[in-house]
Design a protein that fits this description.
It comes from Panicum miliaceum. Keywords: Metal-binding, Zinc, Zinc-finger. One of its GO terms (molecular function) is zinc ion binding. The chain has 8 helices and 11 strands. It is an alpha+beta fold. Among the domains are: about 100 residues, Phosphatidylinositol 3-kinase Catalytic Subunit, Chain A, domain 1 (Ubiquitin-like (UB roll), Roll), CATH 3.10.20; about 45 residues; about 80 residues, no CATH class. A hairpin with a 4-residue loop joins β10 and β11.
Length: about 325
């Protein structure tokens, strides 16, 4: 097969499922075949896809594919450079599968619809200084929190990838940058094969035992940087195994799996039913008698007491007064 063009199979309308090991499989939807030329621009690529899919408007769709022999990470095609890389990666492949997927809503960092966003959820919460309306205000906040948690929980149930959409998008950006990097074993590696040198414009050292890179991006973000991903591709490992568990879809669902119970009525106190007494009795505070006499005043704190020095009104000196002044009276 020549390298000037590749055979692409467009997949649209289906959904992904992920197994316990992170392998993704696509099922359902429709399939269409097309040829992708190596000299195409991204605009020409989109135009050909639109023509193949009966002039479908692609403004709300994204294009993704798998790397050869890797069904755990979806790579995005969003510009001319991404398209050229896709053609280069699959130049020797008989068929390339391109998945046409609806874009996620990125207006919120957690990728949730507007009702689930905290800023939108609490924008309509009324503000009041009336004490009689505080309970209504608290109940309104509770309802908004319940709505936000339900919306995010339902949104996350449709996610099929190992990481949340926001984290997965960041990881894919690093994956797309890692293909041109050169990976070499470190000369002073004392742990076998877990320390590598990654060369681009500079040299960065990746230590897989300590989960760190000298660029510090992996340490700060919690997601592997492009240097670490280049090492994973060199050693045949998967980036998902080195991401913090807090970025996974499972932990996101666990965060919003609980529910908020209604607040009990604060006007009617809780009753304590005593079998020996009828009807029910209410708890009352202990009655105390006021002590006889005037309440004692607390003594002033000696640490903050400020003593004023005595000053003579005749000679203006300190340490004595006019009666004990020994300065002669001038005539």
């Amino acid at each position: 097969m020549g390298k000037e063009q590749i055979v692409a199979v467009l997949q649209i309308g289906g959904e992904f499922t992920t197994d316990a090991d992170g392998h993704m499989s696509y099922s359902g939807g429709e399939a269409h075949a097309m040829l992708v030329q190596s000299d195409w621009t991204f605009s020409a690529f989109k135009q050909e896809i639109s023509s193949t899919l009966n002039n479908l408007k692609l403004d709300q769709f994204a294009f993704k594919y798998f790397l050869p022999k890797n069904d755990k990470t979806l790579i995005s095609i969003s510009n001319d450079k991404d398209l050229r890389r896709m053609v280069e990666f699959h130049a020797e492949s008989e068929t390339t599968y391109i998945y046409v997927m609806k874009k996620a809503d990125n207006r919120s960092k957690s990728i949730v619809p507007d009702p689930g966003a905290p800023t939108d959820a609490f924008a309509v919460v009324p503000t009041t200084q009336d004490g009689s309306k505080r309970q209504k205000l608290v109940d309104t906040i509770r309802c908004k929190l319940m709505e936000m948690m339900y919306t995010r929980r339902e949104s996350s149930n449709a996610w099929t990838e190992v990481l949340t959409p926001a984290a997965n998008q960041k990881l894919q950006e690093e994956v797309s940058k890692a293909h041109t990097l050169n990976v070499l074993p470190a000369e002073n590696d004392e742990n076998g094969s877990n320390v590598f040198k990654v060369c681009d414009d500079s040299v960065n050292v990746v230590n897989l035992n300590k989960l760190e890179c000298t660029c510090r991006k992996w340490y700060v973000s919690g997601l592997p940087c492009m240097h670490a991903i280049a090492v994973f591709e060199h050693t045949g490992q998967y980036p998902y195994d080195y991401c913090l568990k807090y970025f996974t879809t499972g932990f996101y669902r666990l965060t919003y799996s609980l529910s908020i119970n209604p607040i009990p009525d604060v006007i009617v106190p809780t009753t304590l039913v005593d079998p020996a007494q009828s009807p029910a009795t209410y708890p009352c505070p202990i009655r105390t008698r006021r002590r006889v006499g005037r309440p004692k005043e607390k003594p002033a704190d000696p640490r903050i007491a400020i003593k004023r020095a005595v000053r003579c009104s005749r000679c203006k000196g300190y340490g004595h007064n006019k009666a004990t002044c020994k300065v002669p009276i001038s005539t």
